[in-house]
Amino acid sequence: TTPKLIGISGSLRAGSFSTAILEGLKDALAGKAELNVYRLNDLPFYNQDVDTETPPAAVADFRAAIAAADGVIVASPEYNFSMSGVIKNAIDWASRPYGKGPIRGKPTLVITSSPGSTGGLRAQAPLRETLYAAGGLVVHTPHIAIAGVADKVKDGKLVEQKALDFALGGIDALLNEIRVRKA
Ligand code: FNR
Fold this sequence. Notes:
The protein is an alpha/beta fold. The protein has a single domain (4-182), classed as Flavodoxin domain (Rossmann fold, 3-Layer(aba) Sandwich), CATH 3.40.50.360. Helices cover 36% and strands 21% of the residues. The protein has five helices and nine strands. The protein has helices spanning 17-28, 57-67, 85-94, 124-134, 161-182; strands at 4-9, 34-38, 71-79, 82-83, 107-113, 137-138, 144-146, 153-154, 157-158. Strands 1, 2, 3, 4, 5, 6 and 7 form a seven-stranded mixed sheet that branches. It has a two-stranded antiparallel ribbon with strand order 8-9. The protein starts with a strand and ends with a helix. The model has no long low-confidence stretch (mean pLDDT 98). It binds ligand FNR. Ligand FNR binds at residues 11, 13, 16-18, 77-81, 114-116, 118, 120.
């Protein structure tokens, strides 16, 4: 069966390059895997008071979407040399209930990007560390960082072939990790 992936965008803005990378990859995957591009606009701030057996609907939806996936792609911008607050918040939700968060044991690929020349690389290490803490099985290599992303996106999708191929290489590593886990 075709592997199911969830692609979580770490930016809420309509014209987000992080979201566009996921949308471009969804097309480029061409049947190799299904990619559910997931936007976090409805997810509230983490609050342990409401993280009960019946959490907010948006939280339940997000957790179920991760649980239904064989693997996870996190596409985050770099904000002040780290991941966006939006993605940190989402990983915090995905890390709970304690010891049973849906991201636990899920092969996970990290993608960063920036309109600048560093491709969001400084967000990679903190993002990986947070994902390890949450129990995600982070794909070690490659580190997918897309620089100059503004010039590589058209009509809400990553279209530049070199960047697509680079990111698809990361997805190959992710799919391989999924296969190894299932064997
Ligand atoms: C940024 N940006 C940015 N870029 C970068 O390469 N390194 C950084 O540390 C930061 N820091 C930063 C902080 C804040 C608060 C904002 C709003 C922006 C620029 C950032 O890469 C750019 O806005 C991207 O377009 C954001 O990603 P999306 O929204 O296109 O996915």
